Amino acid sequence: FELRNEDLKDLQELGQGNGGSVKKVEHTPTGTMMAKKIVLIDAKPSVRKQILRELHIMHDCNSKYIVSFFGAFLADPNICICMEFMDKGSLHSIYKKIGPIDIDVVGQVALSVLEGLTYLYDVHRIIHRDIKPSNILCNSAGQIKICDFGVSGELINSIADTFVGTSTYMSPERIQGAQYTVKSDVWSLGISLIELALGRFPFSESESDDNDSDLSDLEGTLSPNRPLSMGLPPPRSSRTPKTPTDKNTPTDKKKDRRKSKGVSLQGGSMTMSILELLQHIVNEPAPRLTPEGRFPKEAEDFVDSCLWKDPEIRKTPKDLLV
Ligand code: ATP
Ligand code: MG
């Protein structure tokens, strides 16, 4: 059926992101519940139409690991994207509510995301580009699905200036301006899995000495308005990635993994700490599932294999499914 704004009854605000807001709506002619994403687009009419054409590909994305698509339309000055309503919301909102997610469940999340990414890439040659807990949704049937993938190049361009604050799941190669590949999504998955298992963003201030800092970290991070308390080392322009001294090569990964310093995004100067964070991702060892021994070895190894800093070594979603 053709979707029209006047057939959609607003029921509830589901959340707000950088690019717009999402509402639960009812499609009154059919009684179907949907999530309607409203994206404010600063673009010419011709570009808007192009975006709509590009979004059309989503009609062909049919997988139980992908949030399904009902349609999109223009509602000046916005573009509305209507998708399957996922009644348990995002994993971001779930862990904010209940704390760290059980590692077995995190394993199921990994499986579903990899299935979704493999489907998108193998069948449609689509790279997701925005894997993070708020784009992994759950429903009460127990399904886990991904949403908000980058089907439309024009849409990506049109909302590019709202990008600050969402860039933190970016892979080191992406931060350095390399081509986005499906392996960049694998990096973002690794970061997301740690976040879910620990109940906090992995680059937030962590690490006192080594392994035993975890509980206090967690409590600390949960308290509101915690000041920015951890500085980062100055930029190391002399050190480029992939040199023998790079800290995250297979051979010396182990001995250096404890040295990474955390950076907090809470409080303080947000803009500055995001720049620092990007620098940190590029220059420091990748985060890990820590403290050692808290999680099953398979989980630690799996996350490590998502977070090889060198994309050549990092596996594809398909490899990781095996
Ligand atoms: P960002 O804008 O940085 O990507 P985001 O993913 O949180 O962040 P939106 O994509 O606008 O921003 O989504 C806002 C919130 O709406 C999500 O966090 C999620 O909780 C909720 N949401 C999005 N899509 C759905 C859906 N299909 N079903 C149910 N809830 C949804
Ligand atoms: Mg989203």
TrEMBL record:
Transmembrane regions listed in the UniProt entry: none
Domain of life the protein comes from: Eukaryota
Record GO biological process: MAPK cascade
Protein name: MAP kinase kinase (MEK)
Record field: compositional bias (Acidic residues): 206-217
Keywords: ATP-binding, Kinase, Nucleotide-binding, Serine/threonine-protein kinase, Transferase
Gene Ontology molecular function: ATP binding; protein serine/threonine kinase activity; protein serine/threonine/tyrosine kinase activity
Source organism of the structure: Pleurotus ostreatus (Oyster mushroom)
Native organism taxonomy: Eukaryota, Fungi, Dikarya, Basidiomycota, Agaricomycotina
Gene, per the UniProt record: STE7
Disordered: region residues: 205-266
Biased composition, class Low complexity, residue ranges: 237-248
Positions annotated to bind ATP: 37
Entire protein: shown range: 109 to 430 of 430
Protein kinase domain span: 8-322
Assigned protein family: Belongs to the protein kinase superfamily. STE Ser/Thr protein kinase family. MAP kinase kinase subfamily.
